[in-house]
C-alpha cells in the first residue's frame, strides 16, 4: 500500500551520491545528541507484558518506567520490547531511558478513547488545536525529560487512529485528538529506526524542546486521515530530521511556534531546524513552515528532499493576527513529481484560536531562499502573496525548473506584496522577483 515509486528511489539515491561527491562525506545529525549505551536492561515481559494483541499492557509499561525512574541506574536503563503486539493505554516516559522495539514488536494504542487522559493546553496555543479547553495526552508522552531514546529494529508504534478520525469527521470530538508521540520541555531526544503508523493526530511533536534528532523513521497514515502531520517541531531549537520516509494525510514536516496572541505572549521561536534526505507524499505539503508561527521561525535548512503525489511541494504559510517572524529559511536540492503547486508562500493561510487575536499583529517574512529545485508533472509553478501592510522581502528563487505533464508549462506565477530576485527560474516568475536591482537577495546563496 505504501511504497516509494522506482523513479523516486533512484532520484533519492542520486541526491545522496551528490552529497558524497560535493562534500566528501555524508552530512548527518551525529553530534547533536550522542547515542547512549545503557548497561542496565529490562524487558517489558519482566513486568508482566504479554504480546498477544489482546492483553492490556498499560500496567506493565507504567511499572517498568516507574522502576527506571526510581532506581536511577548509572547511565540509564533500556526497556526492551520483544516481538509481539502489546496493546496499551497511553503512558509517560522518564529521563535517562531507551525504549527499544525489537523487529516484529508492535506497541498498539487501545481504542478505549473514553479512558484517555486529558492534559492542559499548550500555553503557546491557549487551547486545544481542534477544540477549546484541554487536549488528550499523546499516546507516548514525555514532559521535562532529559536523555531519552526511542529506537529499535524497525518495530512499530501504532496509534490505531481510525476511531479518532471518525470522531473528527462526525463532529463528536470533545477535546483535541492525541498526538502519537510528544515531548515537551525536554532535551537530548533521539527517535530512530521505528515505524510510526495511524496516528490519531500529529505523529511526532517536539514542543519547547532542544537538541532533538529524528532519523531513519518511517511514518505512515492513509491520505484521507485528517491532520496526521508527520513531524512538527514546535517552539523548539537544534532539531535535526533526516533519512526518513513519510506518507500521511497532512504536511510531511511542518515547523511551528505557537498560535496568534498565545504564541506571541509565550514568545518561544523555532530555530536551527535541519531537514535532509526526507522522501514522501501528502495531499498537503511536503516541507512546510506554519501556519502557526507566532513565536517566530528562523534558521531552517531543508535539503535533498523528494516529494511526490502531493498537494504542494514547499509551503510557507502565515496569516494576519499571527505576528512573529519567518526569516532565514533555505530549501535546496528538491525533486518533486506529480504535485499540484510547486512553491507557495502565503500570508492568508490558517485559522484563529478565537476572536481575540489582534488583526494588526502582522507577520514579518524576510530572507527565504529556494534553490536547485526540479519538478515534473507540476500543475502550477507557484504563488507568493505577502500582506499589503507587511510585504515579504528578500525572497530568492534560484535555479528552479518546474515542468508540466508533458513538458515545460508557463502558467503565471501569482505574486503580490513581495520583493526579491529570481535567477534561472522556469517558468518565468512574476515581475516583482525579476528585477536585476534586486539580485542582492540571492547574492549569498550560490
From TrEMBL:
The molecule here is called Rhamnogalacturonase A/B/Epimerase-like pectate lyase domain-containing protein
Family assignment from sequence similarity: Belongs to the glycosyl hydrolase 28 family.
Under the heading PANTHER family, the entry gives: PECTIN LYASE-LIKE SUPERFAMILY PROTEIN, PECTIN LYASE-RELATED
Which keywords, in A-to-Z order, does the entry hold? Glycosidase, Hydrolase
> Source organism's superkingdom?
Eukaryota
InterPro entries assigned to the protein according to its UniProt record, in alphabetical order: GH28_Enzymes, Glyco_hydro_28, PbH1, Pectin_lyas_fold, Pectin_lyase_fold/virulence, RHGA/B-epi-like_pectate_lyase
Q: Does the keyword Chaperone apply?
A: no
Residue ranges annotated for the Rhamnogalacturonase A/B/Epimerase-like pectate lyase domain, each copy included:
42-99
Q: Which GO terms describe its molecular function?
A: polygalacturonase activity
The organism of origin for this protein: Gossypium stocksii
Stored SMART domains: PbH1 (SM00710)
Q: Which terms under GO biological process does the entry name? A: carbohydrate metabolic process
Amino acid at each position: 500500500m505504501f511504497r516509494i515509486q522506482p523513479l523516486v528511489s533512484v532520484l533519492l539515491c542520486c541526491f545522496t551520491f551528490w552529497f558524497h561527491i560535493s562534500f566528501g562525506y555524508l552530512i548527518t545529525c551525529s553530534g547533536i545528541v550522542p547515542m547512549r549505551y545503557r548497561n542496565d536492561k529490562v524487558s517489558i515481559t519482566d513486568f508482566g507484558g504479554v504480546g498477544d494483541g489482546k492483553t492490556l499492557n498499560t500496567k506493565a509499561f507504567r511499572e517498568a518506567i516507574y522502576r527506571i525512574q526510581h532506581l536511577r541506574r548509572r547511565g540509564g536503563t533500556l526497556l526492551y520490547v520483544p516481538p509481539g503486539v502489546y496493546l496499551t493505554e497511553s503512558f509517560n516516559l522518564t529521563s535517562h531511558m531507551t525504549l527499544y522495539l525489537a523487529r516484529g514488536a508492535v506497541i498498539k494504542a487501545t481504542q478505549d478513547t473514553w479512558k484517555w487522559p486529558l492534559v492542559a493546553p499548550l500555553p503557546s496555543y491557549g487551547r486545544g488545536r481542534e477544540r477549546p479547553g484541554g487536549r488528550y495526552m499523546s499516546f507516548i508522552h514525555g514532559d521535562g525529560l532529559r536523555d531519552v531514546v526511542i529506537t529499535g529494529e524497525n518495530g512499530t508504534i501504532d496509534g490505531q487512529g481510525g476511531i479518532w478520525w471518525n470522531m473528527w469527521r462526525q463532529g463528536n470530538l470533545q477535546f483535541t485528538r492525541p498526538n502519537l508521540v510528544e515531548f515537551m520541555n525536554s532535551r537530548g531526544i533521539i527517535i530512530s529506526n521505528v515505524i510510526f503508523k495511524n496516528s490519531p493526530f500529529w505523529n511526532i511533536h517536539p514542543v519547547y524542546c532542544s537538541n532533538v534528532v529524528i532519523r531513519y523513521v518511517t511514518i505512515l497514515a492513509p491520505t484521507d486521515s485528517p491532520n496526521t502531520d508527520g513531524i512538527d517541531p514546535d517552539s523548539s531549537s537544534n532539531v535535526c530530521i533526516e533519512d526518513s520516509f513519510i506518507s500521511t494525510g497532512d504536511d510531511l514536516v511542518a515547523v511551528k511556534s505557537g498560535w496568534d496572541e498565545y504564541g506571541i505572549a509565550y514568545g518561544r521561536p523555532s530555530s536551527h531546524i535541519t531537514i535532509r534526505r526526507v522522501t514522501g507524499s501528502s495531499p498537503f505539503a511536503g516541507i512546510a513552515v506554519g501556519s502557526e508561527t507566532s513565536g517566530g521561525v528562523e534558521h531552517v535548512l531543508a535539503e535533498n528532499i523528494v516529494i511526490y503525489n502531493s498537494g504542494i511541494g514547499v509551503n510557507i504559510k502565515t496569516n494576519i493576527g499571527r505576528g512573529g517572524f519567518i526569516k532565514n529559511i533555505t530549501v535546496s536540492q528538491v525533486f518533486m513529481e506529480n504535485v499540484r503547486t510547486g512553491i507557495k508562500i502565503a500570508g492568508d493561510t490558517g485559522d484563529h484560536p478565537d476572536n481575540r487575536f489582534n488583526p494588526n499583529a502582522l507577520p514579518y517574512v524576510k530572507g527565504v531562499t529556494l534553490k536547485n529545485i526540479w519538478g515534473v508533472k507540476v500543475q502550477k509553478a507557484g504563488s507568493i502573496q505577502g500582506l499589503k501592510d507587511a510585504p515579504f522581502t528578500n525572497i530568492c528563487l534560484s535555479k528552479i525548473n518546474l515542468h508540466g505533464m508533458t513538458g515545460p508549462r508557463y502558467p503565471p506565477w501569482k505574486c503580490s506584496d513581495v520583493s526579491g530576485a529570481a535567477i534561472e527560474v522556469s517558468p518565468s516568475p512574476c515581475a516583482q522577483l525579476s528585477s536585476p536591482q534586486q539580485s542582492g537577495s540571492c547574492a549569498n546563496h550560490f
